[in-house]
Amino acid sequence: MAIGKVGVAGCGTMGAGIAIVAARAGFETIVLDSRQDALDGARAQTESFLRKSVARGKLAPERLDEIMASWSGTTDVRDLADCDYVIEAIFEELGAKHELFAKLDAICGPDTIFASNTSTISITEIAGGSGRADRFVGMHFCLPAQLMKLVEMSRGMNTSDQTWEKAWKFCAKLGQTAVETKDTPGFILNYFLIPFNNDAIRLVEQGVAEPAEIDKAIKVAMGYPMGPLELLDLVGMDTQRLLSEAMHDLTHEKRAACPAIVKRMIAANRLGKKSGRGFHEYGDTKMFGA
Amino acid sequence: MAVTVIRADESRSFAIGEDLAFGEGNGVVLVGSEAGGQLAAFPSASRDFVAVELGSECLAEHLGLEESEDNVRTVGFARFRMGDAQPTRLVELVKMPWTDPAAVEAARACFENAGLTVAVCEDFAGRIVDRLIRPYLNAVLRRLDDGLASAADMDRTLMLGLGYPEGPLALLKRTGLAAHHDVSAALYQQLADPDFAPARRAQVVAARR
Ligand SMILES: NC(=O)c1ccc[n+]([C@@H]2O[C@H](COP(=O)([O-])OP(=O)(O)OC[C@H]3O[C@@H](n4cnc5c(N)ncnc54)[C@H](O)[C@@H]3O)[C@@H](O)[C@H]2O)c1
């Protein structure tokens, strides 16, 4: 017996992982995407992830079929009508999000709670165009959602206390760890991380030290599992640029501004690990100082 | 011959009595908060290297901005340490643009012999770690004042989200906000960058000392 029904709107990088979290926690999970190929890809990815979990002893073998049976995909928004919760993870575009939530508001019951996984748009702004700003929360998962426990939860200005309490319990039922943050740009994680990473880029830009020396220094001094430039190579320069520009537009804080070298690195196809070279060079998975 | 260690006074890098096994070589390590005062007696011309302990000052304060026979093999160093905590394994090794690369490598080997990890950097205020973490720690303190989240939730977020072993607020509490204030204020003076201006919470604790 499912403990409730969760809709996940958008099954790209984030949505696919969030849907795994919901289905694994015992919710009937329906995944909406405008592209059938995204749904097919996410279903295959879900199955392969769960198989690995079984192989690693993290998931009981009999649960695999059960979870896959509770996971369904659709391209028709009307199939989300009877959801208890809808978590939105579509493109980072206010207009697109408003359009989707307006459709959902028209078909979902009055008790359905809406959540957005947005990284850079205000929850209050998205909620404002949802038709149910009082039943709306922010739920910001981390990549990859199926492995990372953290969810930054935030209230919009008009979120009701009752909605907040329900959403908080829902997050616990998902097996996630919630933290409460204000609805301000970047919430907690990105607010601190994006400028920190930009500062590390500026050290390289200024010739303070080689990337490998910077990463080593931070890891040894602070005990961080990864140096900032290694992390940036995983994030990708293109993504760092988008995140920085979004944050800087909202906060006007100079540390959030995208360093000029990032644009040159993008032009030179030094995007990071995915293009084989960023601040470090990648042959297979080995890492060398740039 | 063993690397020569000259101790001026109390050091933030190496406690008095700490066994300093720097290995063999014709090098000199000047230890202590006043180590720079000894430099005149140790020109590097005839040595593999001379390493002088730094506080928050630049190496150029001791060497000047011009290359000379006496400073071409002199480097600066500081073992990274947060306030009252024990020194970490990290040694930031500071070179000038003209420093003889062989001297940098000899100094690196000497600290590595002692079981430390060396990161080489050029001579900029704050070197690598302070330059990166002080604005971040000030931002954390400011946003705590803004009510972004509770201290526990801010720490939890950074630990769960990024795998940090300790949250920034717990770290500051453990190692001393006044110590953060002092490093941050020194860098603010040198860099004139408002992100280094000590956050209110650090100022308050420093004022109450
Ligand atoms: N990528 C990250 O690291 C990350 C982390 C946390 C939060 N977020 C946030 O999550 C959201 C999604 O990001 P992503 O990286 O997964 O994006 P993505 O581009 O990988 O996926 C978006 C998916 O949404 C689908 N889609 C777009 N518009 C739709 C619509 N109107 N109806 C149905 N499906 C639609 C697309 O086909 C695509 O499959 C964004 O709001 C982003 O800010 C991203």
From TrEMBL, chain A:
Gene3D superfamilies: N-(1-d-carboxylethyl)-l-norvaline Dehydrogenase, domain 2 (1.10.1040.10), NAD(P)-binding Rossmann-like Domain (3.40.50.720). It comes from the Bacteria. Pfam families: 3HCDH, 3HCDH_N. Residues 5-184 form the 3-hydroxyacyl-CoA dehydrogenase NAD binding domain. Keywords: Oxidoreductase. Residues 186-282 form the 3-hydroxyacyl-CoA dehydrogenase C-terminal domain. This is 3-hydroxyacyl-CoA dehydrogenase family protein. It comes from Novosphingobium mangrovi (ex Huang et al. 2023).
UniProtKB/TrEMBL annotation, chain B:
Transmembrane segments: none annotated. Pfam families: 3HCDH. Residues 128-200 form the 3-hydroxyacyl-CoA dehydrogenase C-terminal domain. InterPro entries: 3HC_DH_C, 6-PGluconate_DH-like_C_sf, 6PGD_dom2. It comes from the Bacteria. This is 3-hydroxyacyl-CoA dehydrogenase family protein. It comes from Novosphingobium mangrovi (ex Huang et al. 2023).
